[in-house]
Amino acid sequence: MAVTEPAPVAPTAAHEGILRRQSLRESAARTYARSLPIVPVRARGLTIEGADGRRYLDCLSGAGTLALGHNHPVVLEAIKKVLDSGAPLHVLDLATPVKDAFTTELFATLPRPLAEDARIQFCGPAGTDAVEAALKLVRTATGRSGLLAFTGAYHGMTAGALEASGGATDVRVTRLPFPHDYRCPFGIGGERGAELAARWTESLLDDSKSGVPTPAAMILEPVQGEGGVIPAPDEWLRRMRALTAARSIPLIADEVQTGVGRTGTFWGVEHSQVVPDVMVLSKAIGGSLPLAVVVYRSDLDAWPPGAHAGTFRGNQLAMAAGAATLAHVRENALAERAGTLGARMLASLQGLAAAHPCIGDVRGRGLMIGVELVEPDSMAPDAVVPPPAPRLAAAVQQECLHRGLIVELGGRRAGVVRLLPPLTLTDEQAVAVLDRFADALAAAERSAQRRTDNRRSDNRQSN
Hints:
Layout: H1 13-25, H2 32-35, E1 40-44, E2 47-50, E3 55-58, H3 61-64, H4 73-85, H5 97-109, H6 112-115, E4 118-123, H7 127-142, E5 147-150, H8 159-164, E6 173-176, H9 190-206, E7 217-220, E8 223-224, E9 230-231, H10 234-246, E10 251-254, E11 278-281, E12 292-297, H11 316-331, H12 334-353, E13 359-365, E14 368-373, H13 390-402, E15 405-406, E16 408-410, E17 416-419, H14 427-462
Parallel strand pairs: 3-15, 5-6, 5-7, 7-10, 10-11
Antiparallel strand pairs: 1-2, 2-3, 4-12, 8-9, 11-12, 13-14, 14-17, 16-17
Helix pairs in contact: 4-11, 5-11, 9-10, 12-14, 13-14
């Protein structure tokens, strides 16, 4: 079904002025603003309206934060209820009815064996803060300092979280191979590749000459998000749970992006029926507002009072919005809906890949979808798969934006186009998203082909 592209709208002076002042005033570290030069002024559900009058379908969702999309009525009502009640908005870590309701709702969604014997630490206010707290917790509880993490991982931007992420070089972190069907570190993929990755980990832990002492914990993502939307194979994840449990190594599941129904189950670890020792939660649990927590087995609760504190860990509006979001996802089976609709979207994109050699792989779980773009003509003779195509991916992102579709990039060398629509996505909206993406991909391919043809023509003329 063809989708009519949004009519071009001339940027307003206010729109251009805001963008210009942002570029002059804000840090060079700004990210999304560089590739998405829009000025949101209104939003509802999947749709954002910019200051230039254009409307966009938002498949970034605040990097996965907006489980229910923008300004969902149940979230707005929960926030208004707190505001109208006269309740304090800032309470440090004091007990409140709002916090009690949030914690009760959260525990009702957790894997049952963990929820029955769990403690919760409110951190503040981002996922990376929760990762830091989790690492500090397991090091205190075990008396050990080392950490097992995985290639391609992303756990945040603070020092400890960066140590555990894919680009770290800190000697306290031992980097392990993460199974990857398409870019398998062993060149074979599938069950065999995952088995070799598990054996590598087991050998490293049991080899007295490996140079790796028993670590404080293993941290992993059920689906690597920033790493390129790479789902952990269920059997491999069960193997990691068994390996760590047998050696008294706490297993930390980073569910910051995979949680609250995103992957088709309420928590990503539920696909493999694994119960971790620690869960790191943020993004969607705050219902669009900043909130981060660590949930862990009670026997790890070795902190003395004040061992891990923070001023902004009692955000009452976020707790109210979060409780409303968790309840709405649970009561309306939105995780199951994400699994069903996500599978249909994956199938459509895999069909698109058959007609586009530049699509190397389509993968994901639920409404966490990645399309890896490659350069098939640049494949080395001894390569297993073609190299990533980051320039093409960036071009597709811009062509999507021109058509009123917001997508994100990730993966090795930013060659993966990522889709993170809200769990409230309708069938009709899913079709529109896929059609706009297909049009954008075709347009980016045509532009790339024209550049190639022009270079060849210039070379012939120069010769």
